[in-house]
Structures are given as structure tokens and as C-alpha cells.
């Protein structure tokens, strides 16, 4: 499965091909518009939505400020309940731990609950290299796996596929992975779901090892929580003899009471439901009920470094609802693959560069994959100010410098192509400190506007290739104000 994004081009190059794919754009437009409308209706039902949003923000911020204490409490509670806790500093360590645990059981196949964390670390590829086959059981993840594809959405990984494409994938690939699809399979949703159900059922009944992530971890009790819509996750969480959960450390919440907030905001923001159809919770192991062995792998993989950034750390509030993707005009046109990460869209544009660093072309380009329209902030159920973090990361990319990551110094090189931008910013700074020069330039531009081209030359050519160059008005705002309102001059030479 080509599930990794290693070696992908920077966002502008990747997006250029996507925006010319008419089928992709139609699929995205239909799906995001539908989800967006339903989410708005679900949120409107709650008169206290703003209060819930603020509560979620406060809970997350409090937890992140005291994360060391709550992680220690979580480890103690999981251990007391019969589970085993493992700590993974990065993806390689997490993969070694999970691979070793699976190999110790003697099994050569595992069933998986949909998990962003395991995609982030490339667990399926690591297991395959060790001779273990991982079966995705979420319907959308199954489509992605069978199609040798990559996920393109947090909530709906196969959002870029339509029903006809899914039918063709099932017909062509199910045989290679297990039970084949019916010969007369059509593209009706009911038949596609039934084909997936029959294909997966034999894997659920056979597998001895299950792998999951978690939406939340409750520190006071050591309880893990997974919310889903299909029930396939619950099959993976209850039927195998061994359960291994790989969870980012930021998924911790202090108490059971805190779950009340997120179990209201998450389903409405993601699937536009009042409550997720399946909310599974487990605490350690219980004799005669569920897996006999439970392992929790707590994943850092750049999260501690992100936590050290006073502005960027708010990205760790994310509860993976994907509401920001569904309102983003850039995502709707470019799709998820252009972001070169398992975290696409606005949240991916601020999370991936912090988890992976901004010293690669793709990660240095992600903070620029936005119009800064602010729609993502408006719908975020934990009030992450994504535009603020984007601007912060753009500054970091443009300036370069050094940061400390996992005990080593990493040089952040300014991304190629930003030299002209930095020169333009310096010129703008000079102009804004010389108002007389600005007024002279405005008047010159107004008097010569009939000769202005419709497209910019040189570096500006790319910008105007997809945008109209704004027309220059016959006079500047300052001159208009002075002429119509008798504005006076201040001591710096400006009009007011």
C-alpha cells in the first residue's frame, strides 16, 4: 500500500494537478457541501454551542499545560487496570514496539480500527516489512487500502472516490485481500456496504490481534474512548485476544466529566450527528470479557516540541473532527493528497509542519496553503485559531533559524521561492515609513492606470495567472478624503 507521503512535491505543485481534475473536484464539492450543511443544522440545535466550544478549549489548554502530570496519572491507572504502557519518542520507536508486540503473539495478521496516529507513523508499512499483514476495517480506509491509495480526508479518507470508482476497486481487488466481491456488484450504497461487511467479517472472526488509536484517554481512570459510525471498530476492540492502542499524548483529558463536552461537540462537528452511533470505552482488561492483553503505546513524535511553541501548541487541541476541511475553499479544490500528509486541510497545514519540522519543501509550503479567510476558526469546536498559527509558521519559514527537536539542533532553511517575498516585505516596510513616497506612487499609478497591464510580469505572473489584477482607482483614498471632507495633515505628513 502506498500509504506514505515521503517524497511528495510542495503543495503548489501537488495542488496544480488536482485543481484540473474535474472528477476529483466534483467529488469533493458534493461531499463537503453536504457535510457542511448538515453540520450547521446539527450545531444550530444547541443554544449553548459557544459555551461548549469555550469549555472544550479550556479543558484542552489546561491539560496541555499540565500534560506531564496527567500522563503520569494515566499510566498509573492503565497499569492498575491490567494494561501495559509503552512510551514512544518517535515513529520508529512506536513501530518497533508494536511490531515486537505482534511478533510476540506469533500472529501474522492484525485487524485495525481507523487511526490517524498509526497512519502518521507508517505502521502498516512497518508491519508489512516484518511479515505481518494489517487489515483496515473502517469502510473508507478499506477502500483506500484496496485501491493502493492514500487517505485524503480525516473523517472520510476516501472522499475523493465516487461510488462507481469504489465498485470497480471492490471488484478488482477484494479477491487479492480475502473474500471476493459479488460478480454482479453495483454501485448502490447498500450493495457496496454489504460487500464490505462480508469481506471483513471473516477477518474479525479470525484475527487474534487488534490495533487501534483512541479519540480520548481519561487520566483519572485509564479509560480509552473510540467513537465511530459503523461498528467495525467495536469488533476490533472486543474480539481479538490482544489489543494494542497507539495514541498521541495530546489525546489525554483529566476526568470522565470532561468527556461530556467532547461527546457533544465531536459528533456534531464531524458526522453532523447528535451522538456517535458507536462509542466504545475500555479500561485495562477484564477476565472473560474482551481482550486478555492490552497495550497502550503513548506517542510523542514531535508533540512535545509543538507544545513548546506558545502559538503553535493550540494545534494540539485538535479532536480530529475535520470540520475545518469541509469549509476550506482551498481543500475543496485541491483535495487532501496535495497536503502530503495524513493530516490534510487547514489543521494539517499547521499540525504537520510542527510535528515534522519545516525543513522540507512540502512542510515549508503548507503554511501557505490557505487564503486566511478564517472559516476554519469559525467552525472549530475547540477554537483553534488556525489563521494565527499559519501566519506564525509562515514567519518561521521565511526567517529560518534553529529549533531544538528531540535533543538536536535542526536548521530551518527558508523555503525556495521566498527570497522575492522577503525583498517585497523590506520594500513595503520602507514605503510605509515614508508616506510622501507612498502618496507620490499612488498619484502616479492613478494617472497612468489606462496603461496598466491585465497580467503582471516576472514573479507576479504566477499570481495573476489565476486572479484578476485589481483596477487602480482614479484617486487614492487619502486624496479622496481630503477633497470631500477637508481632511487635515498630521505631523507625520498623512491625512486624517
Automatic annotation (TrEMBL):
Residues 393-484 form the Lactate utilization protein B C-terminal domain. SUPFAM superfamilies: 4Fe-4S ferredoxins, NagB/RpiA/CoA transferase-like. Residues 450-496 are annotated as: Disordered. The keyword Transport applies. Keywords: 4Fe-4S, Electron transport, Iron, Iron-sulfur, Metal-binding, Repeat, Transport. Residues 73-285 form the LUD domain. The keyword Zinc-finger does not apply. Residues 315-384 form the 4Fe-4S ferredoxin-type domain. InterPro entries: 4Fe4S_Fe-S-bd, FTHF_cligase-like_sf, Helical_ferredxn, LUD_dom, LutB/LldF, LutB_C, NagB/RpiA_transferase-like. This is Lactate utilization protein B. It comes from Streptomyces kurssanovii.
